[in-house]
Amino acid sequence: MLNQPFNPLPLDELTAVFARIKGLLLTEDKVDRALQLLVQAVSDAVPGSAGAGISLFDAQGRGSSTAATERLVEIADAAQHDLGQGPCVAAWMAETTVLVDDAAADDRWPLWSQAVASLPVRSLVSTPLGTTGAPIGTLKIYAALPGAFTAATGRLLEKFAVPAATLMAHVQGPDTPRHLSGPFKGALAGRDTTNRACGILMERHGFTAEQAFRELLRRARAGGTPLSQVCSDLAGGPGLPAAG
């Protein structure tokens, strides 16, 4: 663990950061600038940060790095997007902040941990970006040392995420992933089509919840179909295609 105490930026400094963003003319050509200001503020606010970034997810569940302070962030994020697993995918899926103390020892996402093993990536915090409805993406921060972040880091990131999501909702252009549809809301709470579709796959194939969700993502990507439609077809259809 880091010996230094966690001392985030004072709230007045955070307010100043968002005042700068709000002062930009939020046209499409200003979106990149606003997002870079945001992720740089996040990185500056946390001691030991190796970089921060934002990922967005489209209707097929495909992730993309929209802003990053370092190339390292883009590489580590790309591994998650390509593999369909990792702390940011988990934060988006479960709609909750995810903390990684040591990527080298964390067995929740083995393919991703293996993919970043050669990178200076050990700690990570990722929190969902959303205002109403399901999250549109995640805001995350990386560190090169294990145990660099705590629950307090997660709470700070959540403070950034709320206005960041509001900003994203107002500046999304035609090439930016849109808000995800309703069936993702509360997917783990048993109240929607996504949860029922996951349950079908878990029962029929013995999948875990995460494996079932990855299978839904695979089908959506393979067919170029929105995840919501894949889930609806599976939950309401007469048959169940074989898992790939």
Automatic annotation (TrEMBL):
Span of domain ANTAR: 174-235
Matching Gene3D superfamilies: 3.30.450.40, Winged helix-like DNA-binding domain superfamily/Winged helix DNA-binding domain (1.10.10.10)
Keywords, comma-separated and alphabetical: Kinase, Transcription, Transcription regulation, Transferase
Highest taxon, organism lineage: Bacteria
SMART domains linked: ANTAR (SM01012)
InterPro entries (alphabetical): ANTAR (IPR005561), CheY-like_superfamily (IPR011006), GAF (IPR003018), GAF-like_dom_sf (IPR029016), GAF_ANTAR (IPR012074), WH-like_DNA-bd_sf (IPR036388)
Pfam families: ANTAR (PF03861), GAF_2 (PF13185)
Protein's UniProt keywords contain Transcription regulation: yes
Keyword Signal among record annotations: no
Entry protein name: Transcriptional regulator with GAF, ATPase, and Fis domain
